[in-house]
Every structure is written in C-alpha cells, then in structure tokens.
Specification:
Strand order of the largest sheet of chain B: 8-10-6-17-14-15-16
Structural class of chain A: alpha+beta
Strand content of chain A: 15-25%
Largest interface: A-B, 50 and 61 residues
Shape of chain A: globular
Largest sheet of chain A: 5 strands, antiparallel
Number of helices of chain A: 11
Number of strands of chain A: 13
Distance between the termini of chain A: 38 Å
CATH topology of the largest domain in chain A: Uridine Diphospho-n-acetylenolpyruvylglucosamine Reductase, domain 3
Order of helices and strands of chain A: EHEHEEEHHHHHHEEEEEEEEHHH
Largest sheet of chain B: 7 strands, mixed
Number of domains of chain A: 3
Structural class of chain B: alpha+beta
Oligomer: heterodimer
CATH architecture of the largest domain in chain A: 2-Layer Sandwich
C-alpha cells in the first residue's frame, strides 16, 4: 500500500482548506515532509493517506517579511531560508541558531519551520526559539476561523498539536524583532548516538535597561522539561531587575536548578545529566544573549555542526 | 491523474506516474537513472541526494510531485559534454571512491557546496556533508578530494593524493593504479543488484517473525494468495530441497516451518512474489500465522545458565554454541611470578555493519532466456560459491544447476557473507517462472543480517616490576544470536588474540559463544579481535599505571618479535613489524607536543585532552587448520589483452586493482591491457570467501601463479619464433622481447593458440597449511600488526568526547596499492571510531530497538579525525611480493586507543562502549574513575 495516494499543491490557504475538507480528514498537510514521510513510511500501522496537501507553493507561507518592529515568517519557510536571512540573524538570532542545527543541509533545504512547530515536540529546535521570542502563530482552522494565537497554545502534549493536520493550516508566525538593548541566543546538547533529538535545548531572549546594566526582561525556553514547550518563568523572574554580571548568572542557575526538573528519557539522557545540562546551557547562552543585547551586534554561532 | 513535469539533467519529461512516488523512485524506476541510490528512506544517510532547483535534497523522502515543474540534477548530470565535473575527477584521483554506493550522494552534496564556495574550509565541508554518510573511506580522502576540486575550479593545480611512503615500487605493484571501471562509480553507471531489472520481473517480500522466540502453530496463506497481483506465496512446505542453510553449521531454516520455531525477529516465515512491491507487502499483511510464544533468551550470560530456555531444541550442548579454549604454560606459576595483577570486566555491544547498500537478490528461473539457461541469482555477495552451494541444497539441485552472478557490492565488511534472500529469490523465481527481485528495506536489513558479537570479557593480566608480562587469564562471553553463522570462527579469533600481540608465557583463555534469541552474530571487520583488543589494550594501560611505567614502554617490552612463541604455541618466524609500528607512532605522537613537551593528558579551560595508544595484530587467512584455497584463471587474447577471473569479492576495497596489478606485473603488460572478471560461478573459479583479510594474499597469490604459468607457456610458444633460449625471453611494456627482437604480446598469444594450446592458465593456490587451535602448531601463516595513537578531547561541561587525531602505523608486509591501502586504513579507523563513540545496536529481550537507521548512528564526516597513516612493510615470504592482509587490522586498536585517551584526559576508565557523555559527565561530577554503563543502559 502506498503511504499516500493523491498529491495536491494548492496555491492559496483557502484552496488548501477546501482540499482538506473535501477528503473529510483522510488527507494530510505536508510541508517539507522530512518528518512526515518518515512517520508515514516507518511509523507503524499508519493508514494510507488519501492525499497529501503540500502547502509550500502557497506564496504567503513562504515569505519572510518585516512589518515595523515585527517580522512575519511563513510556516512553509525552510530552515535554510531562515538561516540565510540577514534580518533574522541580526534581530532573531536564536531562531537562526536553532534552525541552523536541524539535520543536515538536505533536510534544512526542505524542512519547514511550520513543520517543526506542528510536530509539537517538547524540544523542537525552531519551536524552542519561537517560544523565547514570544511568537504568535496564525492558524486557518478547518471550520473557517482564522486567528492569531500565542505559540504556546499550539501544544497539547508530546507530539500532540492543537492543530489537526488533516483539517487545519498553520499559516505563519509573527514576533517582535530584537530592538535596542535586546538580544537572543540558542544552544543545545546532542548525543552522537541514537535518535537525533536534543538532549536539551535552550533559547534565551533578554532585554536590558537603557543603561544596558540590568535585565529588564527575559524569556527562556529550555526543553524538554515539561510535556510541552514552556517558559522557564522562575529563571526569568530571577533575572528581572538584576544587574548584568556573574551574580545574575548564578541566580539564574540557582533558579533553574530549583525550578526545572527534566526527566530521564530512555536511550537519550538521564534526568541527572539533563539537570547538569540546564546549567551548562544557561552558562553558555545567557552571557551570549546578554552580550548581543548590550552591543546590538549578533553573529549566529554554531550553524551546521552544533 | 495529473502528469508530472520534471526537467532532469536538462531534459524535460512529462511522466504519467502514480502520485505516491518519491523523487528517488521516479528517477530510478521510471526514468532508469539508477545512479541515485536509496540507502535508508529515512533522510539519515544522504546517499540519495540530488539537486532540486540547485539545492541538495534527500530524494528518498521527497514526494516526486513536490518537484512538479522543477529542475532536477542527478549524478548522471554532473559531467558536462563528456567531461567529468572536477569533483568527480577529484574523487577518482584521491581514492575517495570505494564501494561507490554512497558516492553519488557525496558527489551531489559536495557539488552543491562547491557551486557556492570553491575554497571550502574543513569546517565548511563538515557542515555540507554532515548528513551524507560513507561507510568505507573514513572521509579523509573525501575532504581532500573536495578541496582539490575547489582548487581546480579556481584555476589552480589539484592537490596531490595523500599516498603513504612505501618501499620499492615495481612496474605495477606498489603503485597506486586505479581500480578498473571505478569511473563508472562517479558517473552513476555502476550497477548494483537493485539497478538490474528484467522483463516481467516480479517483486518479492518476506514475512518476518512476530516474536523473538515462538513455536509456529499454523500458517494460512490463502488470503494472500487471493490478492490480485500476487503470483506466489511460499512457506517451508514449498522448499524442494533441504530447508536449511548456514556457513559453518547448518542450523538456519530457509523458511520457518509449522511445528518448528522462530528464533529471532528476523526469521522468515513466508515469502511472496507479486507484480509490484506494494502488492507483495500488502500480501504479507494477509498471511495469518499462529504462534505459541516461548521464553526469550536475551543475553549470552543468562543463556549459559542450566535452566535457560533452549534456543535450538536438539543442540547437544544446550545454548552453548562453542566453548573455545587456549591453554599455554603454567597459569598459577605465571601469576605467582607477577608483582602486579590487574583484573577487569569489559562490555562491548552488538554492532551493525550499516553497509550503505541494503541486501538485494534477483532470482532468474532456468530457461528464462538464452542468457539464463540455469537458475541464476544476482547478488552482491562476499562468498558467491557458498551462496551457490546453499541455494542448490535448498533447491534440491546439483550445484552446477545454479549460477550465482556477483554484482557490484555496496559495502560488505563481513555483513554480506550469509544467506539473506538469495534462496528466497531462487524459490520465488522457480515457483513463478519469472525473475523475482527481493530488495530489503534498510529497516529489514537492520533486523535480519548477522552483526558484530556483543561480548562480556573478563581479563586478568599479571606482570613483573620490570613490566614483563607473566600471565593472562580471560573469560569471554559472545552473543552468537539465533544461528551460528560464523560465530565459531569469529569468537575463536577473539579468544586466540586475547593475549594481544605480546609475549605471554602463561595463558588460560575460555570463550563461551552462546545461542540467544537475538539477531545472529557473524563476520564483521576485525572478526572478534576488535572486541578482545578493547579489553586487552586497556588492561595493558592499567598494568602500566600500576607499575608506574610508560604505556608505550610496556608494550614495546612485551611486543611479539620474530622468534617468539604465541599463546597458541605458534613460533613467529618472519614478518613481525610490531615494534616498528610502535616506534613510528610514538615518534609522531611525542612530536605533537609542539615543543612544550609531550603529555598524556592536560587541561585547557573546560576542555580536557588526552592521548591514548593501543596495538593490534590480526591473522591473514582462515587458519586454524581450515584448508585455505583460492583459484584464479588468467586468459590472454590476440588483441593483447588478458582477463583475470576469480570469484573473490571487490566490495570497495579495490581487489580488482590488486589482481590486475599483479597480473600486469607478471606478464609485463600495460595496466590497461588487463581486465578483471569477478564472482560469476559459471565463468570464474572459486576464490574462496572474501573474509579474514585474505584476498590480497590468497587470490593475489592465485593470480600471480596463474600469470606466471601463462607466461611460461607463452615463452615456450614464442621461443621458437624468436629463435632464442626460453630463459632469455622477457615480458615488458606489453611486448615479448629477446635481445633486440620484439613481438607484440597479442602476437605471442596468437602463436600459442596456433601451436595448439589455449592461452589460458588456471591456478589452484593452497595457502601454507595451518594447525587447529590446541594442537600447538602454526594456527596462521601470517599476521599483520598495527599501533595507533588517538588524541581526544572531553568537554568537561557536557561530557562530549571528540577524536581529533589518529596516528597509525600498520605492518602490511607490502603495500600493493598504496592509495587503496590508505583507504582501507582510514576507513577502518573511522569505522572503529564508531564502535568507540557512536554505535550500539540495541535489543530489548530479543526485540531489536535499533530497527531504524535514525536509531543507529554511524560516524559522519563531523566525527572524522585527522588521520596520519604510516605503512610498515615487513615482508611475508609466502605473500604476493611479501604482502599480507590489511582489511581488518585498522578496525582493531582504534577503540582501545580512544578509551585509553579518554582516561588520560579525565581519569575515567571506559569499560563499556560506546563512550557515553551522560555517564562520563556524571562520573566526573561524582569523582568516579570507572564507567561501566553506556548509552544503551539509559532507561
């Protein structure tokens, strides 16, 4: 049995929704397909999809456009396109760093940011950064509603999305670009054995006060810790109002140890190791994000091989 | 139905194909562009890479209709106007092509890089090729080739190939001649088994066991047979001959019968042939099998318990497949003499070959067409003649009624010695009267074929204060899995080599190879010695530390030399280059201190650095009393060419070149005058198995003798024409000379034919006789030796381990082809690096977990260290020009060298591989100095 039968390439969101509706749940959205095809071919007793609806030919889903201080990134923008965006590198550095370590070039050339989010893994690389960037996602629901949602509303459980990929279309993402005194960074730890999922990933966004001396705000996403991506609110709280420096870093580390308790994942990482990695990643990413916020300069690091 | 519009390599196509196709399927099966290979269908291996609108993508998980209207470039489109792309030429020049199966992927990925960056750094290359695997080369030659091609694209001179320094080149021997036809592997022309199709060909699929251990109560194939498009559904009842196969012991059913048992998850219960692969797979789901699940034997130690369930009911020693013993000297006295005794237990996991070409067999029925008058099986096999005998036994045919035609092999490493689908393809072809192809998916391949034995090795080493070893006692457990395969031989090698390449006057070594319900274990490069060396060489470092002695000095002091006796009672009479390998590596390693003085370990901030060293030896040839024979034939033609024929496998190591070089050398021919035909049981004589690092020596000797015999016959035939005494006839540069007279080689051939003799010589080469283990005689006719040093870093904030450098010195007797030899060494080192750092095939109570390539990571280019490889040549007098084997030795000491380096870096000794950053970091945080768990133990 083939994994799917028909293959459609609609050119508008409405056309995609209509196609999905016409199959009554038997068709499925495909972005790059770099995860989906593996699921379809090797995921066990998956039924044949009557059709795949490829959203990558819908122009609006493939664009990166700035709107004032915000940027809109289409859900079908590839990881490669994100890593090549000078705008994103300068002003959403963590997203570029996280998209730059996904797979190899062949996967990044095809795999989309929307696919990463729709997969709803608790440590999706792009997802982790979008959470730290406080992104919103535009969803075209199968029932005709179209709305912007905070990204965290999309995740219902490990691998379980609020979106039904047989009926709904993830359209695009929107978030504020880093402004004066703001910066971000992403770091992760992998193991060279077994599945290519991060042992732990960490995206940090910070805003410093006008003097660039104190943390005015911070958003930190470290995963997998919870069953869905989540902000490390206690760590953020520990930074707010604290002067930039070693004391702030130690406070963040202490808050992280007190509040974040990752689990053991079979063949992936022990809870104890992950707990250490929370600290290691914070110690790497927080000074980096802070430096970027202070200097206004950001060059993405670790692309391709981290 | 929508048509698919594609421009492929500049040609526009409008295709009427199912919308369910992947791009790789359209390219391979609809357009016949078989240069694009399918390795995993998981976006893991990258060998299916093609360009879509200039961007490299994995075509195996790329829906074809996603490429609607796009421009696709495949490996067939890289060359322009008949001129190779610089990257294709560079791959040839630098020996970056071995088996060639991953080559299209590497080329396409590299070409995409070079299109934007003709001066890529090491880092750039690692980023671009990170997810494009090669299992043969170790990536060193690939990197050089890419940088060289970039230079050519910038209008600069290419980089010369990195050939190792060697002694005395002859005309063709000890010269880096190219492998005949290797250019086909960079253009996509080279044909592997799945690249063949025949009119009317059906597709086969195999129903595997549903349990690791169960009695088969019933099999109902009626629904499957009723599915339209299904042409045959066969079970054990349909096997016309003996329903059994096996390389050493006949214990492996072709198909598991009702009333018999399945013994591992890869066991075959039924086979289907259908019009399409999709129908065949659908039919598998319609076969109803009734099972009575039985208790599972999950590991070799529990398998040995008296109350353990039996894997083979009738086996006289329960689950004990073999108890192998080495007894030497007086163990008690040896330990009594010791000032220091070290006793430790080591674990190594099951390791998968992960050759990039999944197994494929095509059966063609007898009488199918004029080319197939007998039952023929096309397969990329390491042992074509044993395939033939095993097929014949199961088919109930005389061996002469079966023909095995070897195709190119996309990597073997020992994993293509056993029967996998050869008999099934023969059965289905015979039953349907049509050709039947059985191509395993990667996932099926991971499940089915025999792997490297998981071992538990306890080893006790005694030494005097001055470092002299006094005794070794060892106990090894090997997980043989469900069927014997080559377990007996492999674990014998692990046992006999468990002293290391040292003089050990007293030894007692016991090895228990056990049947379990895990996938069978069999041959894998290193053949058991990889495992025992991991234990032996770390115990050596522990002894050195206990004595306060330098690890190099301890090894040199005990190293085997000419004249010593091994623990199996063999007196080494010649060709023992171990000490020279130690000296060579030590010199380089100590020089790496950059003038700051050499240190075994040091810290730079959070990064800990360490060097480690390890030695190895490995027999050439079967040994142990097994008659070891290889036949080769050389035939000459009037056009001045010759053909060398033998059934020996070229699985990427370049045997074709080695045999052509030897024939050209002996007959004074230009290299281009030699053709090589391998692995056709009707046309080529039996070269024996391509295993045990034996073919350069065995088939090399056979070809050398056949060529010499032919030369003598040609001399006799031409001496009269030249009017000269036979002893003064010389063969040079494609000519036959006597003083100033010459005749062309082809004319000499014609003269011979006219004198009534066929210009053809067949030689049966018999290796020097060896003795069985326990007899105290020569178990082997020769050993290769090696020393390696590894430089590693450990990030003490994450536990991550990286190997930066490996310095190797390898005593190969003689380098017949330096560039190919270099490729064997570099590839072997990176393969063993995988054993040390990345690889473990995980089985949970008989059920493999590692059934996706995504769950089995082999080293990628990002793991590849800088390799410095020195060749040491202590001639073996019986070897061709002094050569002995090299295929396996590079994969033996890398793992312990890395483990010893980790110890020197952070003071934690690794008793279980692969080195686990998780456990290592925890050990560092807790101040522990021993690591007894690995990744597979994280639960």
């Amino acid at each position: 049995m083939p994994a799917w039968k028909a293959y459609h390439t609609p050119s508008t969101v409405d056309e995609a929704l209509a196609l999905l509706a016409s199959y009554g749940g038997a068709a499925q959205i495909i972005g790059g397909g770099t995860d989906l095809l593996i699921d379809l071919q090797h995921g066990g007793q998956e039924p044949t999809r009557a059709a795949l609806v490829d959203v990558t030919r819908i122009p609006a889903l493939g664009e990166i456009t700035s709107e004032g201080e915000s940027v809109i990134v289409g859900a079908a923008v590839t990881h490669t396109a994100i890593t090549r965006s000078a705008l994103l590198e300068a002003r959403a550095t963590c997203l570029v760093e996280s998209c730059g370590v996904v797979g190899g070039p062949q996967v990044r050339n095809v795999g989309t940011l929307g696919g990463n989010v729709a997969h709803a893994l608790p440590a999706g690389d792009g997802t982790t950064s979008l959470v730290a960037l406080d992104a919103e996602a535009e969803v075209a629901w199968g029932d005709g509603r179209r709305e912007w949602l905070p990204i965290l509303k999309l995740f219902k459980g490990p691998g379980v999305s609020a979106l039904d990929s047989h009926r709904d279309v993830l359209v695009r993402f929107r978030f504020r670009l880093a402004g004066e005194g703001e910066g971000s960074a992403f770091r992760r730890v992998m193991r060279p054995q077994g599945v290519a999922l991060p042992v732990l990933g960490c995206a940090i966004w910070v805003r410093l006060d006008e003097a660039r001396a104190t943390y005015a705000d911070a958003r930190i996403c470290i995963g997998p810790v919870e069953r869905t991506p989540a902000l490390a609110s206690a760590v953020q709280e520990a930074l707010r109002g604290r002067p930039v420096g070693p004391e702030a870093l130690e406070a963040a580390v202490a808050a992280a140890h007190a509040s974040l308790h990752p689990r053991t994942s079979k063949y992936r990482a022990t809870a104890e190791y992950r707990q250490h990695m929370v600290e290691t990643l914070l110690r790497g990413a927080l000074p980096l994000a802070t430096r970027r916020a202070r200097t206004g300069q950001a060059v993405a690091e670790g692309l391709g091989l981290a | 139905m929508t048509h698919l519009h594609l421009t492929v390599n500049g040609t526009a196509h409008t295709l009427d194909v199912p919308e369910s196709r992947t791009l790789a399927q359209v390219l391979r099966y609809d357009l016949g562009l078989t240069g694009t290979k399918i390795g995993c269908e998981e976006a893991e291996c990258g060998i299916c890479t093609v360009h879509v609108d200039g961007l490299p993508v994995n075509s195996c998980i790329y829906p074809a209709f996603k490429a609607q209207g796009r421009s696709v470039i495949t490996v067939e489109g890289l060359a322009e106007g008949g001129r190779l792309h610089p990257i294709q030429q560079a791959f040839l020049d630098h020996g970056a092509v071995q088996c060639g199966f991953c080559t299209p992927g590497l080329l396409m990925t590299a070409a995409a890089l070079l299109a934007h960056n003709t001066d890529p750094s090491d880092h750039d290359i690692k980023v671009a090729l990170k997810d494009t695997y090669c299992r043969c080369t170790g990536y060193a030659s690939v990197k050089r080739a890419i940088q060289s091609a970039g230079r050519v694209m910038r209008g600069l001179e290419p980089i010369p190939p990195a050939e190792p320094a060697i002694d005395e080149p002859l005309h063709h021997v000890s010269v880096s001649e190219p492998v005949p036809d290797v250019a086909d592997r960079v253009t996509g022309k080279a044909k592997y088994a799945d690249d063949f199709t025949f009119p009317g060909m059906l597709h086969g699929a195999t129903l595997r066991a549903a349990y690791p251990h169960a009695r088969v109560l019933s099999i109902d194939t009626s629904r499957a047979k009723a599915l339209p498009g299904v042409r045959a559904v066969l079970t054990a009842a349909d096997v016309p001959g003996e329903n059994i196969h096996g390389l050493v012991y006949l214990d492996w059913p072709v198909l598991c019968a009702v009333g018999d048992k399945v013994r591992y998850m890869g066991d075959a219960v039924a086979i289907v042939a259908a019009d399409t692969l999709e129908i065949a797979r659908e039919a598998l789901g319609l076969i109803a099998v009734g099972y009575e699940p039985l208790p599972v034997v999950g590991d070799p130690v529990s398998a040995h318990r008296p109350d353990a369930p039996r894997v083979h009911d009738g086996h006289e020693h329960g689950n004990l497949l073999k108890h192998i013993k080495v007894r030497h000297g007086d163990l008690e006295r040896g330990f009594a003499e010791a000032d220091v005794i070290v006793e430790r237990t080591y674990h190594t996991p099951t390791i998968e070959h992960a050759f990039l070409e999944p197994e494929c067999s095509i059966g063609v029925p007898a009488g199918y067409d004029s080319e197939h008058d007998k039952l023929t099986v096309y397969v990329g096999s390491q042992i074509p003649y044993q395939d033939r005998s095993q097929i014949a036994r199961a088919m109930g045919l005389p061996e002469e009624e079966v023909r095995v035609r070897g195709t190119l092999i996309g990597g073997g490493f020992g994993g293509k010695e056993d029967i996998i689908s050869q008999i099934h393809a023969a059965l289905l072809a015979t039953a349907t009267g049509r050709p039947v192809k059985i191509l395993l998916t990667r996932q099926e391949s991971l499940l089915v074929h025999p792997k490297r034995h998981a071992t538990v090795i306890r080893i006790k080493t005694g030494a005097k204060k001055d470092g002299t070893l006094t005794a070794v006692e060892a106990e090894l457990y090997g997980d043989g899995g469900a069927y014997a395969s080559l377990s007996d031989k492999v674990m014998t090698r692990a046992t006999t080599h468990a002293t290391g390449p040292y003089v050990v006057p007293n030894a007692k070594i016991d090895c228990y190879v056990m049947y379990t319900n895990n996938p069978p274990s069999g041959a894998f490069r290193g053949f058991g010695v990889t495992q025992s060396a991991f234990a032996v060489e770390q115990n050596m470092d522990l002894v050195a530390e206990a004595l306060g002695m330098d690890p190099v000095e301890l090894r040199r002091k005990n190293a085997q030399t000419v004249g010593v006796t091994t623990a199996t009672g063999q007196v080494l009479r010649e060709s023992v280059g171990l000490i020279e390998t130690i000296d060579t590596v030590e010199k380089d390693m100590r020089a790496a201190g950059n003038g700051h003085g050499f240190r075994w370990g040091w810290r730079e901030g959070d990064i800990a650095w360490g060097w480690g060293i390890a030695c190895a030896y490995k027999n050439t040839g079967l040994g142990g009393g097994a008659p070891d024979r290889a036949d080769a034939e050389v035939e000459a033609f009037d056009d001045g060419t010759i053909e060398v024929r033998t059934s020996s496998a070229d699985m990427g190591q370049g045997l074709r070149a080695v045999l052509a070089q030897i024939a050209a050398e002996e007959l004074g021919l230009r290299y281009e005058q030699v053709r090589v035909l391998l692995s056709d049981t009707d046309l080529t004589p039996n070269g024996g198995p391509t295993t045990a690092s034996r073919q350069t020596y065995m088939s090399g000797n056979a070809v050398r003798h056949a060529a010499t015999d032919l030369r003598e016959a040609l001399i006799r035939a031409t001496a009269e024409e030249l009017d000269c005494p036979p002893e003064r006839v010389r063969f040079e540069e494609g000519l036959v000379r006597y003083d100033r007279q010459t005749i062309a080689f082809g004319d000499a051939v014609r003269l011979m034919r006219e004198s009534g003799q066929e210009p053809r010589a067949l030689h049966e080469y018999w290796a020097p006789k060896t003795q069985p283990l326990g007899s105290g005689g020569d178990m082997h006719f020769g050993f290769s030796y090696a020393t390696q040093a590894a430089l590693v870093s450990v990030d003490t904030t994450t536990g991550e381990v990286r190997v930066h450098r490996v310095i190797a010195a390898t005593d190969v007797g003689r380098a017949i082809n330096p560039l190919l030899l270099q490729g064997q060494i570099e590839g072997g080192i990176v393969m063993a690096l995988g054993n040390a750092l990345t690889e473990s095939y995980i089985i949970e109570d008989g059920v493999p977990w590692s059934t996706l390539l995504a769950r089995y990571k082999m080293p990628s280019i990002k793991h590849a260290p800088e390799i410095t490889s020195h060749i040491v040549e202590h001639r073996l007098s019986s070897g061709p020009y002094g050569a002995k084997g090299v295929g396996e030795i590079p994969s033996i000491n890398t793992m312990p060298a890395i483990a010893n380096a980790v110890y020197h870096a952070v003071g934690v000794r690794v008793f279980s591989v692969p080195v686990d950053q998780d456990a290592l970091l925890r050990a560092l945080r807790h101040g522990e100095t021993e690591l007894h768990t690995s990744w597979q133990d994280v639960k």
